[in-house]
């Protein structure tokens, strides 16, 4: 999706297979989705199955990126204009901490089972690691200009950052906090998504209107193709078969075959689509920025099944792990 | 020598401009107007991308290239300077077009980047025109001075759209 991400897809898939106990009913399979609204300074929690708003929580001003802990108990939110990261306790629905990180913290990811955070600093051109409890900086690596979207592969130990004004993706070795590669992409890369297997990184290039596909083995771009005008969000379905790209200027969702890179459909779904996430079998949620709504999408049918009003100026969203699912109940990261 | 130094400074500034061009907090303006004229008549005015000067009161002069197809460009002369816009989409069936700021000029228009769309819909016996824009303030750092902040950007964009819609209504006829 756009400015956030966690390593969940790969890990979650592995867990489900290992335990063989994926929830079966629709109600159980549908996650909560968290959405940040910039103008409203709020985070909205949505029950994707019921297509209903669960809570709207006030946060500090102009929130942009968000990331959720693996247990789903906490959300971390960036506030670039304030130089802040805030921590929201999901159960109490309250902001329980806020700390200064860098100059303009933008993209954010939770790592090390929730003990640390990675933050891209839009104006200081760095990827910063902080401890999640107090926000103290514990590492920093220089990346390209205006780093935006951030995605982490915890299995491989890599973070990928979209260096928007350098037209490249930086690959950062998390153990050493060093940059292993700067991979050229299309113009103005912003949002990133990793395939469930971790072997492909998809990069939405806003200005050139195309999608870069990076092979994470050799860290090389292996394909780049047009998807639409101003692609601002990207996600992969949980089975990895489809890549979803929101084209902001056209309000369309490009549905791409991950194997052939053919565009299977490009329905117009809303006005100024931005962040997108996939969940469950064949479904997705996307932000319609100008409509102040989140769209729940049936990917196979190319259509919107529900529109949920949220606070003004929604940007990015995150799928929240459910505490009550087998295997993710542990309280290992309560800061 | 002095001239050479000034040129060097100008180049450095030009090199920095793209860095600040896209801050993280977009703003929005949306206005709509009903017009007695038919949707086809209103659309004909809008679809002539280089002819915005015929109906927009804030546009003093236009020079355009590329006709009315995606990829066309127009340079608008406003009261305080020029800005360049590019046509990205034009859909006669939906009567919708979208365009983008190509070359900013914060002196002329205090916005660093925008995309905008105009759509004409049938309404009663006439038309409804919806014009919206998504844009960033002129100074995208964390402490923009007055006149280059969000408020200035919103005011300028809203005024440009409102006056444009009024001009469009006058030109299309009907009130």
Automatic annotation (TrEMBL), chain A:
**Domain of life from the UniProt record:** Bacteria
**Cross-referenced NCBIfam families, in alphabetical order?**
beta_rpt_yvtn (TIGR02276)
What's the protein here called?
Answer: YncE family protein
Automatic annotation (TrEMBL), chain B:
Signal peptide segment = 1-23
InterPro entries cross-referenced by the UniProt entry = Polyketide_cyclase/dehydratase, START-like_dom_sf
This protein's source sits in the domain of life called: Bacteria
Q: Which UniProt keywords apply?
A: Signal
Instruction: Provide the coiled-coil residue spans.
Output: none
One Pfam family name from the record? Polyketide_cyc2
The protein's name: SRPBCC family protein
- Kindly list the organism's lineage: Bacteria, Pseudomonadati, Pseudomonadota, Alphaproteobacteria, Hyphomicrobiales
